[in-house]
């Protein structure tokens, strides 16, 4: 019994500041406000605090964009790949914001976006985002997306953390009559 207490004690004394290096979908959803069909990262497989993140997106045929882009040759829209880069970067950025429930991360710019190969259902995107410049409320990041080790998209994205608008309570005049 004493050995168990010693083990518990040594575990508790480990630095609690150690950054978690992976995230599952539920942890991602606790950080990002995005939801289906616009949550574009499924898992975080690597993370280095304020430096880089690697996320995974599994592309499936039942995603709504493939109904019209394109019906007989489904290709993931490039803008959604850039959004996936921003969301991965947002997962890294928002872990550093203590009051993140009252904040949103917004795009402020996209530079040098390039789409190198088509992405189709069945592909797994590896989204690697590296911080180029980090300020207290704004970040500039380089994103690279690969499929099977081949570059399919790269871009520089800039994002800023802003206050989230408070939800209004319904006033009596807005209430639905019975």
Query: Which series of helices and strands comes N to C?
Result: HHEEHEEEE
CA distance, first residue to last residue: 64 Å
Rg over C-alpha atoms, rounded to the nearest angstrom:
20 Å
The number of E-state strands comes to 6
Spell out the CATH superfamily.
Answer: Hotdog Thioesterase
| Low-pLDDT regions | 1-17
Strand content: 25-35%
Q: Assign the CATH architecture.
A: Roll
Number of domains: 1
Strand arrangement in the largest pleated sheet: 1-2-4-5-6-3
Count of individual helical segments = 3
Helix content: 10-25%
Mean pLDDT: 88
CATH overall fold name: Thiol Ester Dehydrase, Chain A
Question: Structural class given helices, strands, pairing?
Answer: alpha+beta
Instruction: Assign the CATH class.
Output: Alpha Beta
Choose one word for the global shape.
globular
Describe the structure.
The protein has a 6-stranded antiparallel β-sheet, with helices on one face. A hairpin with a 3-residue loop joins β1 (43-48) and β2. It is globular, with a radius of gyration of 20 Å. It has helices spanning 2-12, 25-31, 78-94, and strands spanning 43-48, 52-58, 103-115, 124-134, 138-147, 150-163. Mean pLDDT is 88; it is low at 1-17. The protein is of the alpha+beta class. Helix content is 20%, strand content 34%. It has a single domain (19-163), classed as Thiol Ester Dehydrase, Chain A (Roll).
Please outline the helices and strands:
Layout: H1 2-12, H2 25-31, E1 43-48, E2 52-58, H3 78-94, E3 103-115, E4 124-134, E5 138-147, E6 150-163
Antiparallel strand pairs: 1-2, 2-4, 3-6, 4-5, 5-6
